[in-house]
Amino acid sequence: MTNYRADWFAACLITLMIASSLPGITATAYAQSNPQTLRVEADQQLEWHRDDQQYIARGNAVLTTQEMTLKAETITADYTDTPDKTADNSADSEEPQNSKNRIISITGSGQADIIYLDAQGQETHGQAETIHYDRQEDILTLTGMPASGVIRVTRDGNITEANNSITYHRATGIITNIGDTATKFTDGRQIFGDKAVTITNPEDGKIMRITITGNARILHPDTNGSIQEATGDHAIYDAATDTVTVTGNVILTEADNILQGDKAVMKIGDGTSVLSSDSDNNRVSGQFILE
User: Fold this and answer.
1) Distance between CA 147 and CA 111 in Å, rounded?
2) Sign (positive/negative) of CA torsion 211, 217, 218, 219?
3) CA-CA distance, 137 to 69, in Å (whole number)?
4) pLDDT tens-digit profile of 179-200?
5) What's the CA gap between 264 and 231, in Å, rounded?
6) Would you list the domain boundaries of the chain?
7) What does CATH list as the number for 130-291?
């Protein structure tokens, strides 16, 4: 039988220990003013490995802060010792040298699921087999296939997916997807490729630019219900102009109509596409079905 009282006590103990590891927060300060804390709970056990400088929660573990909720089978928090600036650590001091633990990274392993809130309250939702958060660099890295079969990050209704990894650098707003990547917009547009680098606005999280490298493929639904498809070696989506530029062996298709060239500029808002040639040796071509 599970000892719920013991589990509750262990959770509170770990909460106090981790609270003391956050920047500028001590266990005494936590008890007095209840500042931002990190709380972790689990079905099986909570561990504190002093030699390895780790806290580990096992069995449907849940870690929460004011801005983040991380769920996984196992959650590991790594910390480092830092001097306690509130204490007298000088060589002449007769008091013992003091230090406090600072969490430097958090890893959720086994069907990991994370929800992150930015300063505007915008929610970012990530799913992967493993989610690693580097607190020092403010970088989230998602790797490994979850039960859904694809690594996924959802933000503002838009979805970005990959088979190998997704890295989100929160400070710069850059998301890097590697391996059969897909970006799906709420209006039905989809962008695929081997690698995708998405630049978002760090202030509001809106997508500003997407650069696709390798096997670029863009699907755009028209107002009449048909799908316009463009393929090429590379592609760049510019949100400011709502334009997709595809380069390298470009093929543009809609129904049975086919256009080929070295470069295609698709002006999404205007509903127009322009194909061009980058050399004198190549020509643009088109095949149209006449009814």
Assistant:
1) 7
2) negative
3) 19
4) 999 999 988 899 999 999 999 8
5) 9
6) 1-87+98-117, 130-291
7) 2.60.450.10
